[in-house]
Amino acid sequence: MQLIKGDIVYSSQDARLIERKDSYLGFENGKITGIYDSLPEGEHEVLDRTGCLVIPGLSDLHLHAPQYQYAGIYMDEELLEWLEKHTFPEESKYKDIGYAEKAYGMFVDDLAKSETTRFAVFGTIHRKSTLLLMKKLSASGLKGFVGKVNMDRNSPEYLIEKTDDSIDETKAWLDEAASIDGVGPIITPRFIPSCSNELLERLGVLATERGLPVQSHLDENPSEVEWVKSLCPWSRSYSDAYDRFSLFGTTPTIMAHSVWPDDDEIALMGKRKVFVAHSPSSNANLSSGIAPVRRFLDNGIPVGLATDVAGGSTLSMFRMMTSAIEQSKLRWRYVDSSLRPLTFAEAFHLATRMGGSFFGKVGAFEPGFEADILVIDPSMLHTTLYGDLSPAERLEAYCYRKPGEGLMDKFVAGRRIF
User: Fold this and answer.
1) CA–CA distance, 379 with 184 (Å, rounded to integer)
2) Cα 411 from Cα 231, distance rounded (Å)
C-alpha cells in the first residue's frame, strides 16, 4: 500500500466537504483503500506532504483539443460566427499529421501538468490525427474519452464528410482505437446543425450496438437553438431531436452547455440521466448565457464542469469551479431568484465526484474509488494573519487566489504523473 500524509479534503455523496487533517490517504493497485488517522502497521511507501492539501483529481467533461492553439484570443464574437471564422479553419489543419503531432503534443503536455485527471475530448473529423491524440493522452497517463468528430452538412467544404465516408471512417477509427490503453472512444456528432438526419441515425445505431458513450453540444446559443428548430421541424426540441436518434442517454451521454433548455428538455434530461458539461467560462466568453445549473441539480440531472477550450480560455478546472459559483450568483440575482447560487462545496462536488462519476468510481476518497489524487502546497497563500484555517477554507482560498499553482503531485488510478 502507498500512503500520502497531508490535509485531506473530498466530497461526500450529498456534496458536503469531508476534511481529515494530518491524516494518511491509502491506495493500492490503483484503488483507494481508506483514510487513516495514524500510520498503519506494516511496511508501506509513504509520501509525507504534511501541511499540504490532498484532494481528488478533477474531471473536465468537455474540451476541444484542436482548438487549444488559439485559446485566449478571438473572444469578441458569438458562437456561430466564431466557429466559421476561427474554429473550422484551425481544425482543417489537422488533416496534416505533422501539424497534429506538434499541436497535440503541446496540448497533452499542458493537460498533463494541469489539475485535470479525467477528460472527454473532441478531436476533428480526421481519423489519423484523432488516433494520434488518443495515443499521446494514453502515454501521458491521463484517462478519459476522445471522439472523432462527425460533420456532413452546413460546414465548410474543407471540413465536411460524405455521410457514408463519415460512418466508414468512424468504424475504422473504432477498430484502431480498441487497443489504446486508458483512453476510450466516444461517439461525437459535432452538433445537430452539422449532422444530417441519416448521419445521426447511423451514429445512434453504432453507439447502441457497440455500447459506446456519446458527446455533443446542446442549447448553447439562442441562434443555434433557432437554427435547430428550422432544421428539425418534426422534433419537439433540440433534446428531442437527439433522443429520436438514440443519442440522448440510450448509452452514457454528455451534452455540453445546455444554457437554454425548456421545461420539457429538462424533464427528458432528468429521465435519461444525461450529463451536462457546464462550461461557465466559454458561456461567458461567447456571450451564450448562464446555464440553470440549480434547476439541473434539483431535477436529478448529473452535472460536471468543463473548460470547453477554446471557447474557454484556460485548462484550469479550479477556475471553472469559481466561475460556476460566480455565474450562479448572477443568475440568482438578475434572472431567477428561485435558483439559489452554488456553494463552494457544491462546485467542488461537480468538479470531482459528480463529474467523475461519468468515468466510474472516480472523484472521491472512499474505498474502491480509483486513486486520482492531487497534492497542493498552499503555502503561497500567506494566510497566517487569518488564523488557523481549516483544510476546506485553505482549499477555497487557493481556488480563488492561486488556482493551479503549487501542484506538487498528481496520480491517475494510482499511477504517478508527476
Assistant:
1) 37
2) 45
Question: Residue written as cell 442549447?
Answer: 219
Rg (CA), the chain: 21
Residue 417 CA to residue 263 CA, distance in Å, equals 43
- Residues in contact with 73: Cβ distance below 8 Å, sequence separation at least 6, in sequence order: none
- Are 160 and 187 in contact by the 8 Å Cβ rule? The answer is no
SS3 content of the chain, % helix, strand, coil (to 5): 45, 25, 35
The residues, ordered by sequence, that sit 6+ positions from 126 with a Cβ below 8 Å of its Cβ are 94, 95, 100, 148
Q: What is the pLDDT along the chain (418 residues), one digit of tens a residue?
A: 999 999 999 999 999 999 999 999 999 999 999 999 999 999 999 999 999 999 999 999 999 999 999 999 998 999 999 999 999 999 999 999 999 999 999 999 999 999 999 999 999 999 999 999 999 999 999 999 999 999 999 999 999 999 999 999 999 999 999 999 999 999 999 999 999 999 999 999 999 999 999 999 999 999 999 999 999 999 999 999 999 999 999 999 999 999 999 999 999 999 999 999 999 999 999 999 999 999 999 999 999 999 999 999 999 999 999 999 999 999 999 999 999 999 999 999 999 999 999 999 999 999 999 999 999 998 877 765 556 889 999 999 999 999 999 999 999 999 999 9
| Residue 73: strand, helix, or coil | coil
CA distance 160 to 151: 6
Q: What one-character DSSP code corresponds to residue 397?
A: H
Q: What nine digits make up the cell of 363? A: 472523484
pTM over 0.90: yes
